[in-house]
Amino acid sequence: MTKMSSMEAAPKRPFKEWKAGNMKVAMWKNKKTMEDGSEVEFKTVSLTRSYRKPGEDLWRHDVINLRRNDLQKAILVLQKAQEDLLLFNENAKDDDEE
Fold first, then answer.
1. Residue 98 lies in a domain
2. Is 51 buried (19+), middle (13-18) or exposed (0-12) by CB count in 10 A?
3. pTM for the structure as a whole
4. Which of 19, 31, 91, 97 could be 24's S-S partner, Cβ–Cβ 3.0 to 4.6 Å?
C-alpha cells in the first residue's frame, strides 16, 4: 500500500474568500520549486462567476486565475467597461431588469 502525501489527502483550500451575489474571489497560497532547488511561495487569486442555464438544474462556474500583476489590469478594464455601460448606454435595458 502506498502512502498518500498531504497534498493528495486533502484538497487545497483558499486562505481567504469574498462573495457578492454570484461572484466569488478566493486567494490561494502556492509554492514553486526553482531551478536551484529553493522553494518560493506566491499568492494567486481566482475569480468565479456561478450561474445556471435556463431549464437546467446544474450549477456552472466560470473561473479566471490571476496573479498579483494581473489584478490592477483587470480592475482597470472592468472599470472602463462599467463606465461605458453605465454612462454611455443610458437608454439600453439593464441586464438585471430582464
1. no
2. exposed
3. 0.69
4. 19
Secondary structure letter of residue 78 according to DSSP: H
Start-to-end CA span in the chain (Å): 57
**What is the rounded distance in angstroms from the CA atom of residue 2 to the CA atom of residue 25?**
36
Within a domain: residue 47?
A: yes
Does 3 fall in a domain? Answer: no
Domain membership of residue 67 (yes or no) is yes
Backbone angles phi, psi at 8, to 5 degrees: -80, -30
The domain tally of the chain equals: 1
The boundaries of the domain holding residue 76 are 11-91
**Element (DSSP H or E) covering residue 28:** strand 23-33
The answer to whether 14 and 30 are in contact (CB under 8 A) is no
CA distance 39 to 83: 42
**Mind listing the pLDDT tens digit for each residue in 21-63?**
999 999 999 999 999 999 999 999 999 999 998 888 899 999 9
